[in-house]
Amino acid sequence: MPRLAPELIRAARSRHPLLPLLLPECRTIEQASMELRWLAREGRWGARGTGGGGGRGWLRALCEKRGRGWPLQYLLGTQPFGALEIMCERGVLIPRPETEQFTSHLGGHILKHLHPRSRVGIVDLCTGTGCIPLLLHNQLSMAGMSSRILGVDISARALRSSKRNLEHNKKSLSANVREDIEFFHGNVLAVDGLIEAIGEKVKGVDIVISNPPYISKESFNRSTGRSVRNYEPKLALAPEGGDGDIFYPAIGRAAERLGSQAVVAEVEGWEQANRVKQEWEGTGVWEGVDIWRDFAGIGRTVVGWRCGWEWIRDGPDVVSYRDWKE
Q1: Phi-psi region of 233 (alpha: psi -120 to 50; beta: other; left: phi over 0)
Q2: What sequence ranges are listed for the domain Methyltransferase small (predicted)?
Q3: Radius of gyration of the chain (CA)
Q4: Cα separation of the two ends of the chain
Q5: CATH match for 89-325 among 3.40.50.300, 3.30.200.20, 1.20.1560.10, 3.40.50.150
Q6: Of 39, 40, 32, which is closest to residue 15 (Cα–Cα)?
């Protein structure tokens, strides 16, 4: 990373004494100023959650952590996700805009193509914060459609986070949310046990979704930023053993054995998307498999469907993240 110019540091200090602390990560005065406002307004929870303390020095402590590469969401304590506010804590993966995009698009697809009195069965594998089940439930319940959604994760910390997020967002969810959504421990790679556990909790699965660990060991070391490498949970990003594709055959098998009408999984980019597409096509289970693109036009979501669910192949219109959020 290039060194900061002394002139930049002096200019930042002239605006606010804490701005230079943010420059190593923000790189510009404008970005540092914006993050300082956010930290000053919303960062007290993050100060407690990251050991920053609640005394007079809490804001400086947060700025120092941010300058060392701490993710902003851990310091603020939350991340917007559709109409929801997802609580973020170290040890649990921060929800990404690409995940928000495909989840929102899927929810809209369901509302457009399924009968409004349907009760949709959804399973989210590697649920993390629970952001995908919670946002889908929000979208469907606001339109009067009922659902039964399971979120599965191997991490006890992630499951605690998902349950906290359900409680944190319950005003944006239906009155029956505690019956509609359930988070539980499960190993996606142990398909037999997973199927048995899911079968005891839901009758009929329409869609299996997953944002699994998909970054290879080489890509993790080469392509991720220091904020991701040093502070987010590697287990949620890169599979043990280094094979970034290892989860996708298991996700496909789980969807097949559950009788799911569709399977939807997030991937790293075009190369992995095409490998997963070929893997799922090769099973002969799905009538079709296609790839959705993200804001930048990159293939980031692979979808497979059975007969009658061809509508799910249509991905989001490719727009910029700024335009999409506005």
Answers
A1: beta
A2: 110-220
A3: 21
A4: 32
A5: 3.40.50.150
A6: 32
Using CA atoms, how far apart are residues 24 and 70, in angstroms rounded to an integer?
A: 11
Look up residue 272 and give its two tokens. 């992995």
Q: Where are the domains of the chain?
A: 6-76, 89-325
Residue indicated by tokens 């928000």: 100
pTM: 0.92
Q: pLDDT for 163-177, tens place per residue? A: 999 999 999 999 999
What are phi and psi for residue 36, nearest 5 degrees? -65, -40
SS3 category, 257: helix
User: Which distant-in-sequence residues (6+ apart) come within 8 Å of 256 by Cβ?
Assistant: 283, 285
User: What SS3 class is residue 309?
Assistant: coil
Sheet holding 288-293, edge to edge: 181-185, 146-153, 119-125, 207-210, 262-266, 299-305, 288-293
- Looking at residue 236, what DSSP letter applies? G
> pLDDT digit string (tens) for 242-283?
899 999 999 999 999 999 999 999 999 999 999 999 999 999
Mean pLDDT, rounded, of the chain:
93
Q: Nearest to residue 43, comparing CAs of 73, 23, 70?
A: 73
Nearest to 133 by CA among 79, 186, 95: 95
Q: H/E element holding 85?
A: strand 84-87
The candidate with the shortest Cα–Cα distance to 170, out of 148, 201, 141, 207, is 141
- 3 state SS of 314: coil
Question: Is residue 262 within a helix (H) or strand (E), and if so which, with residue range?
Answer: strand 262-266
Q: Are strands 84-87 and 78-81 parallel, antiparallel or unpaired?
A: antiparallel
- CA-CA distance, 39 to 31, in Å (whole number)? 12
What tokens were used for 162?
A: 């998902």
Check pLDDT > 90 for residue 1. no
Residues with Cβ < 8 Å from 196, sequence gap 6 or more?
none
Q: Which two tokens stand for residue 323?
A: 């335009």
